[in-house]
Specification:
The complex is a heterodimer. Chain A is an alpha/beta fold. Chain A is built from 16 helices and 14 strands. Chain A is globular, with a radius of gyration of 23 Å. Chain B has 3 domains: 45-282, 2-Layer Sandwich (Beta-Lactamase), CATH 3.30.450; 324-425, Helix Hairpins (Orthogonal Bundle), CATH 1.10.287; 434-581, Histidine kinase-like ATPase, C-terminal domain (Heat Shock Protein 90, 2-Layer Sandwich). Classes of the chains: A alpha/beta, B alpha+beta.
């Protein structure tokens, strides 16, 4: 009897262990890119929980999420978990659309910089999934090479000089994105700033901003150190292809850029070697490059909040974060995971110490809607910096007035 | 244990098993792998083909939306640059936009604060203002006549400054039309769902759009909305391929997905037919292989079986009867020939052994008989002598004369028997054999003459068939005459009363030997008696009709000449005695 019963018990136990996902079906909204989505789906497949993920294009994420959360009466559409950009958190939290992270969650295991991303008005609403920011990516076999440039550059002048020295033989020294987020780093390193939403102080209407924008645009295209501007949608792919082909020496990018560069190198059969250097500091010694990250949040309208926090805990597991650092180049947010991360991810994390968060304000994600078109207009030669920046200032003034009537 | 069971199987079965293992099984495995590979390839190509269709349609849909948004942005830029100050110019711009893009049902122009300043009455629920990276596709809305969506584009002038927004409502019926226009595989269905899993368009004209979310109920929809780009899924008898449209524009675009579903049975119909054909061909090949294998096994085992039967025959019967012809080819044939050779040698050895045994026995009998004959001969001579003396004393007609003549005759008969015994037992060396060139023709003529009376009395026709120029081996003609006469008389006696023909045929045997056959048409000798006819005193004749020494003596004489007597007999057809000398 005993042997048979033991065998039966073993079978029952095995069946129970092999049973499919249990519990409620959790809706997960995210804005991961294709490679990241594959990694996410792989991770979800190993979890014993039913998840219904939905990919939302990054540009739609904040609007759609806010729209859906605001209509929380239609509970069916409310996600249980959403992965959001760190700049969206103040916008969502200020509208009381998010649940605070439970005290039992164990946020102490995360790095202080990462935790800061999920905090708004003294309350932690987001569990950091990854930290990111801008740094200089380069191939150590080519940079600084025989350019004679000091490396890594201490300031913007040093970066420009290095880029100029590296620009030769069909190769550009630096990539310059016509995107406001990238320009923020340049503007700050030039001594300017965008805006202080709290004090409603604009930075783009100052001479430093105008000079920075003009200088930035002058470096792109003929006679410059960067390729001419390309359509916004194609920038990342073109940049990666050029870098992999050796036509570009330095890329200004974040951890997310690593996957794109690797993919391009794989396509071209190139031997990719990457190194990371911090972005030059501002003249006052403060970091210039923006620091940000991605957070998991639980909306107020979530139907299964407890299960959602458990899912977030699983998705920020130290082991998974370490794996993603190797697979995707992402920088872990748990201290334990950071220690196990890939050398490149650790180097990136080190470089990101020389970054500064964007203003922690609900308006912040809206600022780039106006900054980027102005930047593009100037880089395309349609307008001068002096013509473009006042329009940005007017648009931001309207935003500030609306935020602080 | 298994090996023992295998060993119990017939050789043919084992050969079949070996053939199966060595040839058929690998063939089947390779065939199965090839079929599996072909199936995988066909299925992959099938999925790839459907994915290509889904990608093409998805790219077309994305391009249409993006182009519409770009057109709005361009018109917005023109409006921002000059139109906003001139209502007529705005109207002209919008009219041209309607003309160029009939897809846009209603178009509205909003100022930077989101207030409508020109154009149609477009639903503004999806307006979000800034933070959209320049454009936005709102949520799909559903009406009784179909699905609609509002797309937004920021209107910015040359310097990039925001002047307002353009919003356009698009009737998504064009998606359904393009889905229905697609050349779909049999029983396939194409549809597009929004990010919430609601049906936006379908190739099925009767499908209810926006009726409710398909998420949770349609695994393909779940997979499509969760996918990084495209993929396939087979679940519950349905094959689905899908594309998440957000992958075309990871920053802007839509979070919709396009899905193609088809019953797996229809999707894999071609592959299934190919599998069936392959299975049929495989089955035929297998049957053919088994048939060929069986024939091969039979060809291999038949000679062995024949050999086995031959062994049984040899075991049951000396000589085993005639060997089978033709012999098997190859090694088994060689083995059979060797076996026959071995059997023949064994048989000869056995015959020799038997002959030796018989010879020893007969020699003993002969010696005994010779002793007895010698002892009998002296008193017999006395008896015969006195009988003759008494007869001389008795005049013809004397009353004792008949009795005395009977005594003398019987004594002479006994004397003949004794002489025969002495002939049989007398060694050749001391038998007074007088060898000389044998004229067998003359011997046959003399035999015929000697036997003529008895042959005539028994109405037997004698045929002499003597080949010309026969060898003349050295032999004792007188003693061989005794043999020939004996054989001729036996033949005549065998054809007792019925008459018939006796043929004495003389032929050359080998290079310098002779074969003299005595062929009668008598009743033949039963097989069980054939082995004994050369034994002394063995006779089938009645009492007083024969001594049983004729054939024994004849054989001894021929053996003394280094020859042999062979006999063949068939019941009802006669017997043939062959005297073989030399050769």
């Amino acid at each position: 009897m005993s042997a048979r019963m033991a065998a039966l018990a073993l079978v029952v136990t095995a069946c129970a262990a092999d049973a499919g996902p249990s519990g409620p079906t959790l809706r997960l909204w995210h804005t991961f890119g294709p490679e990241e989505t594959r990694a996410l789906n792989d991770a979800l497949a190993t979890l014993r929980v039913r998840v219904e993920p939905t990919v939302v294009p990054f540009g739609l994420g904040r609007s759609r999420l806010a729209h859906a959360l605001a209509r929380e009466a239609r509970g069916a559409e409310c996600p249980d978990v959403a992965r959001v950009d760190a700049t969206w958190l103040p916008f969502l939290a200020a509208r009381e659309l998010l649940l605070p992270v439970p005290a039992t969650f164990g946020l102490d295991a995360f790095t202080a910089e990462a935790r800061e991303l999920g905090r708004w008005a003294g309350t932690e609403y987001g569990v950091p999934q990854a930290v990111d920011g801008l740094a200089l990516l380069y191939d150590p076999r080519r940079v600084p090479g025989d350019s004679g440039a000091a490396w890594p550059p201490a300031d913007l002048a040093g970066l420009t000089a290095a880029a100029r020295a590296l620009t030769r033989d069909g190769r550009h020294g630096l990539s310059l994105r016509s995107d406001g987020y990238w320009f923020v780093a340049w503007l700050r390193a030039s001594g300017g700033d965008i805006v202080d939403p709290v004090s409603s102080t604009l930075g783009v209407d100052r001479p430093e901003a105008e000079a920075a924008l003009a200088g930035y645009a002058a470096l792109a295209g003929a006679g410059g150190v960067a390729p001419p501007p390309t359509p916004a949608g194609d920038e990342a792919a073109l940049e990666a292809e050029r870098f992999a082909a050796g036509e570009l020496a330095i890329v200004v990018g974040g951890p997310w850029t690593v996957a794109a560069l690797s993919e391009a190198a794989r396509r071209q059969g190139a031997d990719l070697q990457l190194a990371v250097a911090p972005y030059p500091l501002a003249p006052d010694g403060r970091p210039a490059a923006p620091r940000g990250g991605q957070l998991y949040v639980v909306p107020h309208c979530a139907a299964h909040a407890d299960a959602a926090w458990r899912l977030i805990d699983a998705l920020t597991d130290a082991k998974l974060q370490a794996e993603w650092s190797r697979r995707l180049g992402l920088i872990p947010t748990r201290s334990a995971a950071l220690a196990q991360a890939s050398p490149l991810a650790r180097a990136f994390a080190q470089a990101l110490r020389a970054t500064r968060p964007l203003p922690r304000h609900p308006l912040t994600p809206l600022l780039f809607d106006d900054l980027t078109p102005a930047l593009q207009a100037v880089m395309a030669g349609d307008a001068t910096a002096a013509e473009a920046l006042p329009g940005v200032a007017r648009a931001w003034t309207r935003l500030l007035e609306r935020a602080h009537p | 244990m298994k090996m023992t069971r295998l060993a119990r199987l017939s050789l043919r079965t084992r050969l079949m098993a070996v053939l199966a293992l060595a040839a058929i099984v690998p063939t089947l495995i390779v065939g199965a792998l090839a079929v599996r590979r072909a199936r995988t390839d066909v299925e992959r190509e099938l999925v790839n083909g459907r994915l290509a269709l889904v990608r093409a349609l998805g790219a077309g849909l994305d391009a249409t939306l993006q182009d519409s948004q770009r057109a709005l942005a361009l018109v917005g830029a023109a409006w921002a640059e000059g139109g906003q100050a001139a209502p007529d110019a705005t109207r002209r711009l919008l009219a041209r936009l309607h003309r160029e893009l009939p897809l846009l049902r209603r178009v509205a122009v909003l100022d930077a604060e989101g207030r409508r300043v020109a154009g149609d009455d477009v639903p503004l629920e999806s307006f979000t203002g800034a933070g959209t990276y320049g454009g936005f596709v709102g949520d799909a809305a559903f009406t009784p006549v179909g699905a609609r969506v509002v797309i937004w584009a920021q209107a910015r002038g040359r310097t990039g400054e925001l002047a307002g927004y353009l919003a356009a409502e698009i009737d998504l019926g064009f998606i359904g039309q393009s889905l229905r226009a697609a050349r779909l595989p049999h029983a396939a269905r194409l549809y597009v769902v929004d990010g919430d899993g609601r049906l936006i368009a379908s190739s099925d004209a009767g499908a209810r759009l926006g009726a409710g979310s398909l998420r949770g109920a349609h695994p393909a929809v779940d997979a499509a909305l969760a996918a990084s780009d495209d993929g396939s899924l087979e679940r519950a008898g349905t094959l689905a391929v899908y594309r998440n449209l957000s992958s075309y524009q990871t920053t802007r675009g839509v979070s919709w997905a396009i899905v193609l579903e088809q019953p797996a049975r229809d999707a894999y119909a071609l592959a299934a037919a190919a599998r069936r054909d392959a299975a049929l061909v495989g089955g035929l090949v297998l049957l053919g292989a088994l048939g060929v294998g069986w024939l091969l096994a039979r060809a291999l085992t038949r000679p062995l079986e024949r050999l086995s039967r031959r062994v049984d025959a040899l075991a049951n019967e000396p000589g085993g009867g005639p060997a089978e012809h033709p012999p098997a080819p190859g090694e088994i044939g060689v083995l059979a020939l060797r076996f026959e050779d071995m059997a023949r040698r064994l048989e000869e050895r056995e015959k020799l052994r038997a002959a030796l045994a018989r010879g020893e026995r007969l020699a003993t009998v002969g010696a005994l008989a010779a002793g007895v004959a010698h002892e009998i001969n002296n008193p017999l001579t006395t008896i015969l002598g006195y009988a003759n003396l008494l007869l001389e004393d008795k005049p013809p007609g004397h009353a004792d004369r008949a009795a005395l003549e009977l005594v003398a005759e019987e004594a002479r008969r006994v004397q003949g028997i004794v002489r025969s015994l002495l002939d049989y037992s007398r060694p050749s060396a001391e038998g007074g054999v007088q060898h000389g060139p044998l004229d067998v023709a003359e011997l046959c003529q003399r035999t015929a003459a000697l036997c003529a009376p008895i042959l005539r009395a028994r109405r037997v026709e004698l045929v002499l068939d003597v080949a010309p120029e026969l060898p003349r081996p050295r032999a004792d003609a007188r003693r061989l005459e005794q043999v020939f006469v004996n054989l001729a008389q036996n033949a005549a006696q065998a054809m007792d009363g019925g008459g018939g023909q006796l043929t004495i045929r003389a032929r050359a045997h080998g290079t310098d030997g002779l074969e003299i056959a005595f062929v009668d048409q008598g009743p033949g000798i039963p097989a069980e008696l054939l082995a004994r006819i050369f034994e002394p005193f063995f006779t089938t004749k009645g009492p007083g009709m024969g001594t049983g020494l004729g054939l024994a003596v004849s054989q001894q004489i021929v053996l003394d000449h280094g020859g042999r007597i062979e006999v063949e007999s068939q019941l009802g057809r006669g017997s043939t005695f062959r005297v073989i000398l030399g050769g």
